[in-house]
């Protein structure tokens, strides 16, 4: 078996093109948030966003990772988001795309946050059915991500069992977002070590790394900070256990990026590169 | 509890001002949603949000907009809704600012779809046309 390090990616939501320009030489993939690529749904893609990617990162692969699909909304997913995604895929074919096992819309109202669906068998079957349909529709690798959510839920099974069940029954892979797990642990929703022991880690194809903030005793997953030391340590622990990971993505929202010194961002990316080269396992 | 029932209960807990006592987590996120919404609306409706902020009305107006339960995902579209509602505000300054912000967002959206090769400055042309002058005559 040859040892190949996973690729390294950085998120881009269209807001900080100077950061994209600065980081592009140090990464392999740009993770694009489709939700930010339009000013209005049901319309054409905003070419200005792609112009920034083309100008600063034309040599890099892209992935699409959104929150707007709302695949967990009981009344149905957001079809306009999928139409937007089809337009993006036609314009710039991605390495893969991914979404969250949660919901951002209820009765047509955008919540302003994303919430996890309850981990019940009925919801797991619904999520697997929808994920498989999206996988078939796009013919692309489609990954599912666990959502950090501090709200009380009528769960019937653990988060790891739920994710494994949905992935196995849909043919989709998983994104392991380490900061999400830390938020859920800090908010009393799970134990990270137990989660990793229970999850089928062969399903994990991407790992996401980010930082959040604390508010009134709750750890919120808002990607507003650089990754904490604890998150990086968790990357060191988790990556060698996930044999099929081929991409690690550093995520941070554009409005927060502007508050961080560019050299510090570069150092963060270089630190991540060093960590995944040490732990590289794809063969 | 069905998935739909759970989601409606959470929506209610996350909306400001409803007569529901949310759990602690929902209360924290509910306040954060209002703050983030204020920030985003300030980006797309800078004039009316600026005036509302001077009057210490911004937070209450954002909360009122959220309580309408019709927020779209696009901040631009929501900005148009927010500014359009405030265009009938009894304060003439707020009304004026809201009309300008709404019109600016609508114009920006329409210009995005127009042929980008314009023979003159589109904004100047709009102002001239609105004032009764043919921009092609200059």
The total strand number of chain A stands at 12
Average pLDDT over all residues of chain B: 87
Structural class of chain B: mainly alpha
Radius of gyration of chain B: 19 Å
* Total of helices of chain A: 10
Shape of chain A: globular
Q: Descriptors for this entry?
A:
heterodimer, A: 283 residues, 8-stranded parallel barrel, two-stranded antiparallel ribbon, 10 helices, 39% helix, 23% strand, globular, B: 138 residues, mainly alpha, elongated
Task: Break the fold down into its secondary structure elements and pairings.
The complex is a heterodimer of chains A (283) and B (138).
Chain A: E1 7-12, H1 17-23, E2 29-32, H2 47-57, E3 61-65, H3 79-91, E4 97-100, E5 102-106, E6 109-116, H4 121-138, E7 142-145, H5 159-170, E8 173-177, H6 178-186, H7 192-198, E9 204-209, E10 211-215, E11 218-225, H8 229-238, E12 247-250, H9 254-257, H10 262-279
Parallel strand pairs in A: 1-2, 1-12, 2-3, 3-4, 4-7, 7-8, 8-9, 9-12
Antiparallel strand pairs in A: 5-6, 10-11
Helix pairs in contact in A: 1-2, 4-5
Chain B: H1 3-14, H2 24-44, H3 46-54, H4 58-66, H5 75-86, H6 92-113, H7 122-130
Helix pairs in contact in B: 2-3, 2-4, 3-6, 5-6
């Amino acid at each position: 078996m040859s040892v190949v390090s996973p690729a390294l990616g950085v998120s881009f939501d269209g807001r900080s093109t100077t950061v994209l320009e600065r980081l592009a030489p140090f990464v392999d993939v740009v993770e694009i948030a489709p939700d930010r690529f339009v000013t209005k749904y049901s319309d054409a893609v905003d070419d200005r966003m792609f112009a920034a990617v083309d100008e600063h990162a034309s040599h890099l692969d892209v992935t699409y990772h959104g929150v707007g699909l709302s695949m967990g909304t009981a009344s149905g997913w957001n079809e306009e988001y999928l139409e937007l995604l089809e337009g993006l895929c036609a314009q710039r074919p991605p390495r893969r795309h991914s979404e969250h096992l949660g919901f951002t819309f209820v009765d047509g109202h955008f919540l302003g946050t994303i919430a996890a669906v309850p981990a019940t068998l009925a919801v797991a079957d619904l999520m697997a059915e929808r994920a498989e349909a999206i996988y078939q529709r796009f013919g692309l690798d489609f990954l599912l991500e666990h959502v950090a959510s501090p709200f009380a839920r009528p769960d019937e099974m653990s988060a790891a069992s739920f994710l494994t069940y949905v992935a196995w029954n849909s043919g989709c892979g998983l994104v392991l977002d380490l900061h999400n797990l830390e938020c859920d642990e800090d908010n009393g929703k799970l134990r990270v070590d137990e989660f990793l022991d229970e999850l089928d880690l062969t399903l994990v194809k991407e790992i996401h790394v980010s930082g959040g903030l604390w508010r009134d005793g709750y750890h919120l997953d808002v990607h507003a900070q650089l990754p904490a030391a604890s998150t990086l340590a968790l990357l060191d622990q988790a990556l060698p256990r996930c044999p099929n990971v081929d991409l690690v993505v550093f995520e941070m929202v554009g409005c927060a990026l502007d508050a961080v010194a560019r050299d510090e961002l570069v150092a963060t990316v270089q630190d991540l590169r060093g960590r995944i080269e040490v732990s590289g396992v794809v063969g | 509890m069905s998935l739909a029932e759970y989601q409606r209960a959470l929506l209610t807990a996350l909306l400001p001002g409803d007569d529901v006592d949310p759990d602690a987590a929902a209360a924290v996120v509910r306040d954060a949603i209002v703050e983030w919404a204020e920030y985003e609306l300030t980006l797309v409706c800078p004039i009316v949000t600026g005036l509302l902020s001077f009057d210490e009305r911004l937070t209450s107006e954002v909360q009122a907009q959220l309580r309408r339960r019709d927020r779209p995902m696009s901040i631009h579209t929501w900005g148009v809704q927010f500014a359009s509602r405030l265009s009938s505000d009894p304060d003439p300054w707020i009304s004026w600012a809201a009309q300008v912000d709404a019109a600016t967002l609508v114009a920006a959206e329409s210009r995005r779809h127009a042929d980008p090769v314009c023979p003159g400055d589109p904004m100047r042309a709009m102002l001239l046309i609105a004032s009764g002058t043919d921009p092609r005559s200059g």
